[in-house]
Inverse folding.
């Protein structure tokens, strides 16, 4: 029984890992296609039909490019930076429930790698580790622009993690659990989605997600116009590819977390009235979940090609003077509403 359980989890890990890499890989193509559409041009269209082989060409280019390590760099930490960035990006999806359990014979197969009862704390812990990969790379490069980008990344991450955590506290007051599986299960009907009871919390969370993923308008750690390339200025070959890939994986995982926390995850309207078998419902739920994720990824890209970058002082003011007070007010408001419901509900 233990062997079957281990094999089941290993298969699920491999499937999730491959899907994560494929989605991140084709997000690079989608980014350029969306940019082309918004700028009235086609985007990549030479490598394969409609440019679908472009990500493979880009990956091959990264693998075969010359690898350069600056003479004054700390070699061990220079290599550890992108390694830590990609590892933390990949393992953050371990607690996300991708769908309802599948029934194979008498055995129920869970579509969640690790069902821990503190799933949200796990994600926050892993996300907090991710900034160390950027800091190591920026400091070990022995380049002032890289170091400035790394310092910006650290201060930005610390600032916006506070507001993000406070927005989640209000959600936890409603759901009464830290388990992502239970939070998704509670949103079984369209009217039960948490977006309806925590709209302000969602707005704060999605704003902080942009900052945590270093996406425009919060891409100050890279900020090509000021810092050449930011924390990865001195990187080349696949080490640069790992940094870029980790950003797209973080965007995918952030989209999955937002869909799970606020938009019902794999739940969809009228799923209990279709009269289909549980396995069919579970399969449709997985597809619906990924549609929601892709919609959020498009939202990330749409914002990138719509809004200008903030100045650094604007970034800090938004985090400390606006988002954190709003998140605290949201907690107080949620507590008052919950108390009134208990008293008069």
């Amino acid at each position: 029984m233990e062997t079957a359980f281990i094999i089941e989890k290993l298969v699920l890990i491999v499937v999730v890992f491959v899907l994560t890499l494929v989605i991140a890989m084709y997000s690079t193509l989608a980014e350029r296609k969306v940019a082309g559409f918004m700028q009235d041009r086609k985007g990549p269209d030479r490598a394969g039909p409609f440019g679908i082989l472009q990500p493979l060409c880009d990956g091959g280019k990264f693998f075969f490019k010359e690898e350069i390590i600056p003479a004054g760099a700390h070699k061990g930490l220079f290599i550890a930076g992108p390694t830590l960035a990609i590892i933390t990006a990949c393992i953050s999806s371990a607690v996300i429930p991708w769908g309802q359990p599948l029934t194979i014979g008498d055995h129920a197969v869970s579509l969640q790698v690790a069902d821990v009862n503190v799933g949200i704390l796990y994600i926050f812990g892993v996300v907090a580790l991710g900034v160390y990969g950027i800091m190591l790379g920026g400091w070990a490069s022995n380049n002032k622009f890289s170091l400035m980008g790394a310092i910006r990344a650290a201060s930005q991450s610390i600032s916006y993690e506070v507001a993000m955590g406070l927005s989640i506290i209000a959600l936890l007051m409603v759901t009464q659990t830290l388990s992502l599986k239970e939070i998704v299960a509670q949103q079984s009907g369209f009217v039960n989605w948490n977006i309806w009871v925590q709209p302000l919390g969602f707005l704060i969370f999605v704003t902080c997600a942009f900052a945590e993923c270093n996406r425009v308008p919060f891409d100050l750690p890279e900020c090509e116009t000021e810092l050449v390339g930011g924390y990865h200025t001195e990187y080349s070959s696949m080490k640069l590819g790992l940094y870029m890939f980790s950003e797209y994986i973080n965007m995918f995982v952030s989209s999955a977390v937002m869909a799970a926390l606020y938009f019902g995850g794999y739940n969809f309207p009228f799923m209990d009235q279709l009269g289909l078998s549980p396995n069919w419902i579970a399969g449709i739920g997985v597809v619906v979940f990924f549609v929601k994720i892709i919609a959020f990824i498009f939202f990330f890209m749409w914002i990138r090609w719509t809004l200008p970058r903030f100045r650094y002082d604007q970034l800090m003011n938004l985090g400390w003077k606006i988002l954190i007070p709003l998140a605290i007010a949201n907690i107080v408001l949620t507590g008052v509403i919950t108390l009134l419901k208990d008293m008069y509900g």
About this structure: The first helix runs from residue 2 to 38.
